[in-house]
Amino acid sequence: MAREAQPDTTKLNQADRSDGMSGHYFHGGKVHMRNHRPAEAIAAFREALRLQPDSIEIRLHLAQALRLGGLLTEAVDLCRDASTAHPDQPHWHLELGQVYLAQSRPELALTHFRTALSMQPDLVPAFQGLGHAYLQQGQGPLAAEALHQAHQLHPNNPETLVSLGLALQQAGWGDAARRSLQQALKMRPVYFDAHFHLGNIFMNQGNFKAAGDCYRRAVKIRKGSWEAWANLGSALLKQGCLTEARDCFHRAVQIRPQEPGLGVNLATVLHHLGEMDAALELYRRVIATAPEFPEAWLNLGHIWHEQSHLDEAEAAYRQALRLRPEFPEALTGLGIVAHKRGELAAALDWFRAAQNIRPDCAVAHYNESLTLLATGDYNSGWKKYEWRWRTEKFQPLPFSGPSWDGAPAQNITLLLLCEQGFGDSIQFIRYVSLVKERVGKIVLFCPPSLERLFRTMSEIDFLTSVSDGLPPWDCQASLMSLPGLLNTTLDTIPGHIPYLTTNAADEKKFSLLLNQLPGLKIGLTWRGNPKHENDRHRSLNPAVMACLSRVEGCCFINLQKEISVEERSVWLQAGNFYDFMAESTDFADTAALIAQLDLVISVDTAVIHLAGALAKPCWLLLPPIADWRWLRQRDHSPWYPTLRLFRRGSREDWPTTMEQVMTSLREWVQTGNHRGDHDGPVQTPPG
After folding, report:
1. In sequence order, what are the residues at sequence separation of 6 or more whose Cβ sits closer than 8 angstroms to the Cβ of residue 567?
2. What is the mean pLDDT of residues 146-173?
3. What's the maximum distance between 2 C-alpha atoms anywhere in the chain?
4. CB 334 within 8 A of CB 314
5. What mean pLDDT is predicted for residues 234-263?
6. Shortest CA distance to 527 belongs to which of 612, 589, 604, 426?
7. In whole angstroms, what is the distance from residue 392 CA to residue 332 CA?
8. pTM, whole model, 2 decimals?
9. Contacts of 263 (CB under 8 A, 6+ apart)
């Protein structure tokens, strides 16, 4: 079995064999070194050297202690003097190389490691030093070569395998790096560095669960490692385990409170948990102690813009840019602020400025796509929209396999996948008829609550909500990628409605319930998904919508799932309000209920898409800066011909908008405009 070659120390004085006081201090210094107490070791070695000034061995140990204690200039001087006095001994060049590494001067370190190897070609620590120096220079392949040589000379050294893993990772050979670290753990299962760096590799590969497992083992070995707690928090955050991530970042902050990045990470998790006040307070504390830390200003801007404090958000982003002039995320933030102000041309300029700095800045491309789509520039917008897959906001498609490029191929089976919210799926399921003209068979994978509704589309050959139930398929596409794949413009939106239908038995169930109710039947929805980033602006208090109950000749039908006790109380006080949603178990049931109505009035939720897809007259209540699909400054939509848009002005509140809706509803009832609104299919006029 090969043995690790060490420096030839036969010419060293054997100070550790001395029976005098020098040996006593020398032994004490070595004990301090083993226990990671370099200051005490330095003091002991100095005293030993005072008693035995000619001892090269004591001098060498003192140099090592000085290096570990951070007294690098003194260590360099000591090693230089010793190497001049003893030019034929490689250990001085070896130690001098280590000191230069500690000073981040890899070019000098390389010179001395090579000199040591010229004296002793099988000197393993010198090959290890070469590898570390190349790592500092970012030369992963050369580092891997040197460390591989060290491993060949001494194959049972787990430290070398860990360093080799880092070099392989730097060289871009992630799988080989992973294998090297796993081999180190076979030799030494309880090894902090190996678990920690293996976790880093898994993080880079997107395997966040495996990364988290590695970091958990690392913090069990070294509970005081703030880096391991922080990385565990990051892995948990990537998995959506927000509470656990918060606890990990809190632990890291407790260990190293002066590290501003840890405070920012903890505040980010609090932000995701919806604890906005706590997050804001933490960002302020970080900024108070580290005002030059741009990430804190950036994330502060994120919170401000989400709460629509746009002036404060702009100020925070601009401060981040002052601290780091080339900061694409801050430029993107300014673009989002401009978009929310309705300054779309300025928003595009900001997003493109971010891309000029970092061409692959996915969040800038994605936000640019939303602005382009909002302006109606579908030619450019759909292409940019594909950048969403490279942002942290979107998870990749759940199945591995080739993606469809939109080209006709009658011999293939295409798997279509629902994406994002229920409303998105309902809006873009219309494309199956166009897709069917290009492919042989269509398989749809959808959420269970949409399964019965989508079964009404004859173009779908196979539909399931269970991944294990999928038949073989050739390629895949997301529903929301179809407009881009099929080159949709405002003038070519497939707007033939209805494209969804209802089940006769479901309709009969609701018909029996609604037939006895007086007047025109108006369906209402006042809030959407609370997790939506714009929900605080698009949803409204039911007490505001309840003014509609003053319109005579109508009764109002609930289309809102899971009404709270407070919401129900509002409507009971308003009167003329009926709730049959307990009979609705999925969107097919809700569609059957909508089919019995004369009109649907809703905020931006899946209900409005469902009503539009059924060709039901529907009115949509929009905030000042609405979702991209509703375009700008128009009261109709090319996506749904029977849809009317009511836009809340930037200086208006919801009660003012609802007064307008109430007036329009009264006119609609009195003039009889509801008659014939949805007789037969409707085709969208050009956009």
Report:
1. 542, 560
2. 92
3. 113
4. yes
5. 94
6. 604
7. 15
8. 0.81
9. 253, 257, 282, 283, 285, 286, 296
